[in-house]
Every structure is written in structure tokens, then in C-alpha cells.
Amino acid sequence: MTENTLQRIPEACCTLDISGAEQERLVTMFKAIGNPIRFEIMKYLVTHPGCITADLVDYLPIAQATVSQHLKVLRQAGWIEGTVEGTATSYCLHEGNIAWFRRNVIEIF
Amino acid sequence: MTENTLQRIPEACCTLDISGAEQERLVTMFKAIGNPIRFEIMKYLVTHPGCITADLVDYLPIAQATVSQHLKVLRQAGWIEGTVEGTATSYCLHEGNIAWFRRNVIEIF
DNA sequence: TTTATATATCGTAAATATACGATAAAAGGA
DNA sequence: TCCTTTTATCGTATATTTACGATATATAAA
Fold this sequence. Notes:
2 copies of one chain form a homodimer.
Chain A: H1 20-33, H2 36-47, H3 53-59, H4 64-77, E1 80-85, E2 88-93, H5 95-108
Antiparallel strand pairs in A: 1-2
Chain A binds a DNA duplex through helix 3 and helix 4.
């Protein structure tokens, strides 16, 4: 049997070769960043690493409680890390998880 | 002024250097794929290019109307294309938009 | 100790997403 | 023409998300 006798399935433009817990984790990260406010928070953290919640409250057009809620979603999805410093909480991008995200997205797309 | 006199800002693990309509488009794509059912639809389309809605209805554990709704979200986000063929509609990944997504994600992450 | 500051969480209202059955629409076959 | 098939859309119920003000908590400052 030569190669030509095999059914030709056109190669896809991506593999999406992922499953189980890794797929769940990736979908959770997609969902978390798939919100305009949260994407803006991520952008702000790139240019203002270590900023505190109050900085984001000043920057964003929404209430403090809502900012805190969005930060929680990003934290639980693994995008960011919060460090309590006195009465404030300092936020940074979670480099390890972002690297994991990048590796996986590049691999499956 | 030497380099050492400059304020050292630690380089971020990603740039997220995107804005305006492109940012909106990317966030919409993130949101659409950030759903377990829709991610499964995308995976199915990789291995079953050109399949029809009925195939997905058989494959997924949800009603036909719901599948159709998810397909609409993926279509409107640009992930997939539908082609009417007789009474059926054949679906494929939207290669151009997926390539755009890949380019942008690689660029900003 | 009392007061001020920063933030997370609670309770809740409004908006959006997700699901379903029923039905409309469009094409093919009898 | 009438029936079947396939799919999109409608109407609607339920769940989730997003937003807010109020409040609890924890630390720092007075």
C-alpha cells in the first residue's frame, strides 16, 4: 500500500491537541481573559508591575468591589498573583502560568 | 547619562501590545473559545472538517438548538465558517482568522 | 486605644449566557 | 404538490456574570 492509496485528509490549520485537565485549565484562562475589563487589567499590569488594587480602581471606570471581583477571577485562572503588603495588595502577572499558556497555545494553534 | 542611571523596570513576561479594534476582536475570540462546549466543537472540526450540524448534535450531549447557538457564537467570533449545502450546513475552521489569532497571540504573549 | 486606609467579601439587582422545546424556513425526494 | 430532512430562530426558563453599595477584616498611623 503506497501513500497515494491512503485517504487524504486535508491538514488542519491547527491541532487543538489537548485534553483533560490541561484543556480545562486552558479554557478557564481563555474565559478569564475574554473580558474587556480583565484584558485591560492585564495590560495595566504589564506596564505597572506590583501596582495595588487602588491603582486599578483609579484607572478603571468601575467600582472598587467590581475591580476586586475581576482580580479574583484572574487570580483563580492563574493569570496574576497578589501579595499582601500592609493594608494593600500588590499584583503581578504570574509569569510561570503565562509561560505555560504561551507554550500550550503555540503548540495547539 | 549611562544606562545604569535609568530606572530599571523589570521586563514583563508578555507585552500585550494591542489596542482598539484588534484588541476587541481578540478578546471576542478568547471569550468564544473560553467555553468547554465550544472548545470541543473546535476540536471536532479539526478532525472532521466539513462536517454538518447533525454530526455535532450526535457528538455533543446537548440539544440541536443549543449546538446551533454555539455555532453562531463561533461563527460571529470568526473561528468557523458555515457553508449551506442543500438542507445541511457544512462547517470548517476559518483558517484565515485562526492564522490572525495565532500571529497576534504569539506577538503579544 | 482609637482612627484611618486598603481591600476582600456579602447581599443583591440587572444583564448576559446557556439550555430547551417548538416552530419556521429552505431544499430534496416521493 | 406533499412529505421528509436539516438547520436556524423564537420564546422562555434557569444559571452565571457583572455591577454596585455596604460591611467585615486587617494593618498602619495617630
